[in-house]
Amino acid sequence: MTVTPMMAQYLELKAEYSDALLFYRMGDFYEMFFEDAVAASEALDIALTKRGKHDGADIPMCGVPVHAAEGYLLTLIRKGFRVAVCEQMESPAEAKKRGSKSVVKRDVVRLVTPGTLTEESLLEARRHNYLTAFAEVRDAQALAWVDISTGAFHVMPLTDLRLGPELARLAPSELIVSESKEPDLRDLADDFGIALTGIARSAFDSTGGEARLCALFNVETLDAYGAFTRAEVAAMGAIIQYLEITQKGKLPLLRVPQREAAARTVQIDAATRRNLELTQALSGGRAGSLLAVLDRSVTAGGARLLARRLSSPSRVLSTVLARLEAVRFAVTETSLRHQVRDQLRKVPDLDRALSRLSLDRGGPRDLAALRNGLTQAGDISANLSGSDLPPLLSDASKRMIGNAELIDRLDTALVAEPPLMVRDGGFIAPGHDPDLDDARKLRDEGRGVIAQMQADFVSDTGISSLKIKHNNVLGYFIETPATHADKMLSPPLSETFIHRQTTANQVRFTTVGLSEMETKILNAGARALEIERHHFDLLKADVLQAAGKIGQAASGLAEVDLTTGLAELAACENWAEPKVDESRAFTITRGRHPVVENALRATTGDPFIANDCDLSADDRAAKIWLLTGPNMAGKSTFLRQNAIIALLAQMGSFVPAEAAHIGLISQLFSRVGASDDLARGRSTFMVEMVETAAILNQADDRALIILDEIGRGTATYDGLSIAWATLEHLHDSNRSRALFATHYHEMTALAGKLDGVENATVAVKEWEGEVIFLHEVHKGAADRSYGVQVAQLAGLPPAVITRARVVLDALEKGEREGGATQKTLIDDLPLFSAAASPPPPAPKTSAVEDALANVHPDELSPRQALEVLYKLKEAATS
């Protein structure tokens, strides 16, 4: 069957992008056909229709309006699709010049993938959208990452073992790897919810990568940017190659690549990030995470910087101390802090506005955002200049100035509130360009201009009945009664007025000026838009030329926002400045868990019970607290809060405590809670053991480790053995600072055998058979676990609780009497005794309860109620 020219064009383009949905531009819609239409209609929940036939079958079709395409793109990207955007490269009128049946030229202008989004509506303002690339060159590996919406570009060497933790830290949207490596990394990418893209091995060629990087930054060699390994160059080069493919040659404005060293930041594995809920809650989403509680930033750039600092706390003491000094200054300078934060609230997202402009996806509103943001940056810098700033803020303040000339150009050229798109027009300020003003006047006031010309002609000719009229044949023309024809056709008027037409009663003329004015009026709208587009291109060129300074200003604003935000948090929540040094100290006074404290305040209003912790150690010796106590008493909260306080201190923040002394930690490990990994066939116990093994194999003597209930997923003696051996290994081999929570009370004996182990317990009080949690941590060991009482609080049936007490008493008696055999215990506790046992006795009632039993409050008068109250008091005291 003959294929129409348009469909032939579609199939040709689709063949080039077989792994993506093709958004085929047809007028005001993006249309999809064949399998793309079926998949898109289901994913977007839009109607599936048909258009024409192919090989005798109907062609499925669906479409989305161009003006609403961004929302549909976001949905498709989130559902795992890639989208090739195909635009019309000429107008239908231009196509017809080649022949009446010519098809409009179309081409793919962009491949939309999760890691290459730039549109404001497709991105979360407060988090980065990273595109990563993993490369291997012989025995070396490297990871590079870029956020094309901000221009951030980084690279680091790593091993296969570190790939997972680094992906957990960065939380990228997309990972590109060599096609040969894709099957090996599929499970890892799926675990982290990352779109995995395999590309040709040639993209990872380090020689070609170096050439691409040198061309991008217009340099002869990369030596000025650092000593990169071949694997690092390969990873960066692969990113550039992928961007060239997806952006169709329009590369984003990337900053010079920065090389990161793992030794400069605290190493945190994926399980620890998940357990501590650093940037995302276990339930999913930002709410309930540590980041959500910390975030007092008022700009998007500041929020992104906070997420980076929280994900990568520093191990460099000078860096940590400089950040703490800046926060201390902002805490004490309350008035200045409030003024600066008020100014920061007016700062738009400079990085992303700049990136959109560099990719030709920006508009007048992005220019205005840069104007407004740079203006605010200058005002904030001036506000800070009157103070004796700490070095960190002083450097940030200096980076925010130096753009006065660009600000002036933008301010002079742009209106206060420009439209979103260039095609909307009206963004160049009146008076900036006389030609533009004239075009707008003609466009908006054409009738007035013609009326003025008519008045001028009447004055010049002395013919009061002269009129300027318009029709579709002649356009604009001058008309006079036939009685004035001789005058108009004779010199000197004939030299100006050109005869066009004579009718029975009228004579019609034109002039050169009227013809020119007619052309101007008819083309005024297009001319005005053309002039504005020209000015937009000039202003964009000025902006891109100043991109380096704009990026510096944006980073300075983010630093000030983060510092003042952390200071606001510390002042409002009564957080303390930690002492951080290179010792092996770890002393926290009245520490609190910020997320739990915030949740208590929002729900019950109950205060958080603060606790001390001392894991200070000398000369590379281990220091471990062995924590015992019942479930729900707060052991896990205590473990987590101390890890969080250490992490906050090293990111340069005040901490939720009265005081804290933290000797720099190199690694942070947490194994708190576990769940099945059914996809990989792993039980809860297997997950627990895998995570524990990773800790024991990697932790060094400056690591901080928190472990909860090691060995609980298997038989009692197996679990106790594993927990016992794990604690000994931490003490003797890893020599780390650690908190080790357990229900195995037998392990408390280790405190007398291992010098670095101390017992601690979470205090509870038992009252009339019920347990009251005090949430207080003291030195010493718990005498029991109170599991039955906790089960009672959870709502287990009374018969189950009663039976559990009987079983527990028998088991404890057997243990006290020197090892009753399992068979003896089973004989004493037959399988069906629970069913045969009598129902539990009715709970005893007090005299007050008896007296209240027959009282009906709704039937009492005030006097009778008072009498009842006296009787109750008498019953209570009798």
TrEMBL record:
Entry's Gene Ontology BP terms: mismatch repair
Keywords assigned by UniProt, alphabetized: ATP-binding, DNA damage, DNA repair, DNA-binding, Nucleotide-binding
InterPro entries listed in its UniProt record: DNA_mismatch_repair_MutS, DNA_mismatch_repair_MutS-lik_N, DNA_mismatch_repair_MutS/MSH, DNA_mismatch_repair_MutS_C, DNA_mismatch_repair_MutS_clamp, DNA_mismatch_repair_MutS_core, DNA_mmatch_repair_MutS_con_dom, MutS
Residues binding ATP, per UniProt: 629-636
GO CC annotation: cytosol
GO molecular function: ATP binding; ATP-dependent DNA damage sensor activity; damaged DNA binding; mismatched DNA binding
Pfam families: MutS_I (PF01624), MutS_II (PF05188), MutS_III (PF05192), MutS_IV (PF05190), MutS_V (PF00488)
Domain DNA mismatch repair proteins mutS family: 703-719
Free-text function comment from the UniProt entry: This protein is involved in the repair of mismatches in DNA. It is possible that it carries out the mismatch recognition step. This protein has a weak ATPase activity.
Family listed: Belongs to the DNA mismatch repair MutS family.
Name of this protein: DNA mismatch repair protein MutS
